Amino acid sequence: LSASTGIHAFPAYVRGEHRVRLGSYTSIEKANEAAAKTGLQGATGVGGSTTCYTVTITSTGEIIYEFDAGSEAFLAIQPTGAAYTETWFKGYRYAGAFEYRRNNGNDITVINVLPVSEYTKGVLPYEMNANWHPEALKAQAVCAASYALSNRTKHRSLGFDVCNTTDCQVYLGRNAANANSDAAAEAVKGLVLTYNNKICSTVYHSSNGGSTESAKNIWGTDYPYLQAVPDNFEDLAKANNGIWTYEYTSDEITWILQTKGYDIGKVVDVYVDEYTPAGNVYRLAIIDSKGKKLTFEKSAARTILNSSTLNKYTHSQRYTISGGIRFNVNGGTDVIAAESYAIGKNNTVSRLSGRNDIYLISSGGLSVLKRNTDSFIVSGRGWGHNVGMSQYGAKGMAERGYTFDQILSYYFTGAVVRPNSPDLS
In this model, does residue 371 exceed pLDDT 80? Predict the structure, then answer.
């Protein structure tokens, strides 16, 4: 047909039938005009389908195939033969098959379909350094498999089990894998972490700065295997964002809150209102010039001050706030710490705040400390939500001789490593 009509022809599968289609046009009207000129009986323009998939040659845009089975089936490709095969997608190599879905007529969702063991190999080098100690990598591999299996309904409404971002786990296929990471994944193939015959939701973080935290104090739901444990295994000096400090001005914090939709005036005080028994921040308080107090609990206490615009972040739940309101003192400046207290009459104890004047009794009598500038220093240790396994902690434990199952049992209270089986939910 291409030779006789002068129009590029290609095969198409349309609702159970194989057809030949010609050309590509910007409108149905132009397609119909071209169809009439071919002189072919029954030729007519088609288009506008919300369930059609068009396969093209990337470099030229030439159409080589179209598939449209309505909502009954989706386009998919699968390697054939016994040889191991990888497929390129957007610069990354992946094992397994690919499925393409147009959910509700929207843009195409690309889904990689493969065994859990191969999926784990594609997570491992993107969630942990592929050259780390094998026992740490094994622990991470079990976490990757267990998390995927225990959360496989998370995105079911979209037609897939887990996504490839930090919302689930970073999964980018084979590019970063090496012999060390692949060997670790193979060594624990088929193993999962369980608690009471259920596969654990094995969350993890980069580092915690001294202690993990219970899931209840971060996300509000209690899991018996996600409890706080002390952590002295991390080498924070070598960890990404292991030790960090950011300085915020009062105006910056005011702007951050207002940008996020909070009704608050000029911020004059920021302090940790409550720590957990493990020493992590549970509640953060922020006060404006009119005395209005906003509190942020659990994970919000970690994320509320984050600003990509200012490039300032509270990287973990383990931090302190110092600095606060600066005042003129004896010709210089001094700082009223963000968590300072004063003893008043009748031995009452009250918090000092930049919202009210602070009076100083000296040999010259009673004077008011005049406010100069305001800033808040947020200093912390660790990177992540502090729940579950610390990756740098796992590295430290492995380097001290702990095995992968010992690492997992330390961070996941009461959990047991065992082979995956149908009786596990």
Answer: no
Closest residue by Cα to residue 318 from 220, 421, 234: 234
Residues 6+ apart with CB under 8 A from 158: 103, 109
- Tell me what the mean pLDDT of segment 167-182 comes to: 97
Per-residue pLDDT reduced to its tens digit, 327-370: 455 555 444 544 555 666 566 655 555 445 555 565 555 555 44
For residue 380, give every residue at least 6 positions away whose Cβ sits within 8 Å of its Cβ, in sequence order, or none: 209, 243, 244, 245, 314, 315, 316, 318, 319, 320
Residue type present at position 27: S
**Integer Cα distance of 76 and 15 in angstroms:** 15
State the DSSP string of 177-198: --HHHHHHHHHTTTEEEEETTE
User: Chain-wide mean pLDDT for the chain?
Assistant: 89
Residue among 255, 250, 348, 243 nearest 307 (CA): 255
> How far apart, in whole angstroms, are the C-alpha atoms of residue 120 and residue 117?
5
CA of 145: how far to CAs of 4, 100, 328, 375, 409, in Å?
Answer: 55, 24, 58, 45, 16
User: What pLDDT score does 139 carry?
Assistant: 99
Give residue 349's identity as a one-letter amino acid code.
Answer: V
pLDDT tens figures, 388-402: 999 999 999 999 999
**116-127 and 179-187 helices, crossing angle to 10°:** 130
Residue 297, token pair as written in the block: 């609990």
Distance CA 152, CA 145 (A): 11
Q: Give the CA distances from residue 358 to residues 190, 229, 321, 342, 391, in Å, rounded to whole numbers and listed in that order.
A: 64, 41, 20, 10, 46
Cβ atoms of 76 and 98 within 8 Å: the answer is yes
CA distance 351 to 372: 19
Cα distance between residue 229 and residue 345, in whole Å: 42
Query: What is the pairing mode between strands 75-77 and 370-381?
Result: unpaired
Assigned token pair, 143: 């976490």
∠ CA 79-82-83, nearest 5°, is 75
Which pLDDT does position 256 carry in this prediction? 98
What residue ranges do the domains of the chain occupy? 2-113, 116-238+384-419, 243-381
Tens digit of each residue's pLDDT (9 = 90 or more) over 80-95: 887 888 999 999 999 9
Residue 203 contacts residue 146 (beta carbons within 8 Å): no
